[in-house]
Amino acid sequence: MTTATAVSAKDRESLGDFLLRAPAVGPALALVVAIVVFSLATDTFFDLDNLSTVVQQSLVVGTLALGQTLVILIAGIDLSNAASMVVATLIMAKLAAAGTNGFVALLAGVVLTIIVGIFIGGLATRIKLPAFIITLGTFTMLTAVSKLIAGGQAVPVTDGVLQWLGTKRYLFGGIPITYGMTLALLMYLGVWYALTKTAWGKHVYAVGNAPESARLSGIKVNRTVLSVYIVAGLTFGIAAWQALGRTPNADPNQFQLGNLDSITAVVLGGTSLFGGRGSVLGTLMGALVVAVLRSGLTQMNVDGNYQDLATGALLIAAVVVDRIARRQQQS
Questions:
Q1: Rounded mean pLDDT of the chain?
Q2: Among 167, 172, 155, 68, which Cα is nearest to 113's?
Q3: Contact 238, 165 (CB under 8 A)
Q4: Is the pLDDT of residue 173 over 70?
Q5: DSSP code at position 44
Q6: Helix (H/G/I), strand (E/B), else coil: 247
Q7: For residue 155, what are the β-bridge partners?
Q8: Dihedral (CA of 188, 291, 261, 86) sign
Q9: Where are the alpha helices (DSSP H) in the chain?
Q10: Of 45, 224, 280, 303, which has the highest C-beta tally within 10 A?
Q11: Pick from 32, 72, 50: which is nearest to 283 by CA?
Q12: CATH C-level class of 23-325
């Protein structure tokens, strides 16, 4: 082997190892590049109010992606997360419209998404059905349930509790933020801590890497998997609250691609679809990349179909990078 070839192989190995050790670096760089490009291409993108709006637009998908991250870390998938969230928004809105206390309506919606998580986790651990099949079927059922509940009409929300996360305040007198943004940040910090500083988090990564090895080492695999789907269900319920704070209108036709957008954010953030590798910081970056891309292309008057095309291309590219990085590590 020539010296040049040896150096090239060493560089490729170093790149693969680096990507595996720091998967959030790639999406962070992509985010910076996207912001710079759209700031140069439009006159309004880098405006402070617009950047705040972009962050607000990323909240629902970002919260869905947080729960999706946990599921994908154990080598699972949840195609029903957005549908579960939409049903929760409808239940919250319907109960509030009927005179139910806002806190009770909120709790009812969150309990529903947790129950859905228990249902999926139970089938995955007890009957050993593939998560893809379980959540695809659950997605279909929940989509039908949302239309039955709504009766073909959107439900307006006027309750202050359900709208609270959309309340805007100004940081340092000029930076617009909402309570929803603060809650999302706290949720990300909480899940980051749980994954990196607790035994539960170590078990999640271990199950995603090699479930049989995890079982042999004493980890209760089924319990860990079920707990992940329950925690993910909780985040989807909070995503419903975020959605009502962002748009006080429960509509069964909203977020039809929310499940795919959340998966895109997770994969763009460097979390491996094969499980066992990823971070919530990467997911946060991925969610912001998706929001920046859609906002920037919208301001450039790019057709929505081309926006979906660009998002899909990014998803495929992220999976390809993950695959290459894993192959380089194994070689």
A1: 87
A2: 68
A3: no
A4: no
A5: S
A6: coil
A7: 250
A8: positive
A9: 3-21, 25-41, 48-73, 81-97, 102-122, 131-150, 160-163, 179-197, 199-209, 211-216, 221-246, 258-268, 280-299, 304-330
A10: 280
A11: 72
A12: mainly alpha
CA-based R_g, the chain, Å: 20
CB atoms within 10 A of CB 115: 14
Residues forming a β-bridge with 178: 168
- Asked if the model's pLDDT at residue 30 lies above 50, the reply is yes
Sequence letter at residue 83: A
Read off the pTM: 0.87
pLDDT in tens, 213-252: 999 999 999 999 999 999 999 999 999 999 999 888 999 9
Cα separation of 65 and 69, whole Å? 6
Chain position carrying tokens 């194994």: 330
- Given a contact cutoff of 8 angstroms between Cβ atoms, the answer to whether 215 and 112 are in contact is no
Tokens of 141: 């059922």
pLDDT band, residue 6 (cuts 50/70/90): very low
Residue 328 has pLDDT above 80, yes or no: no
Closest to 110 measured CA to CA, from 148, 84, 129: 84
Q: Which SS3 state, helix, strand or coil, does residue 22 take?
A: coil
75 backbone φψ class: left, alpha, beta (φ>0; ψ -120 to 50): left
Neighbouring CB atoms inside 10 A of 44's CB total: 11
Instruction: State how far the Cα of 312 lies from the Cα of 305, in Å rounded to an integer.
Output: 11
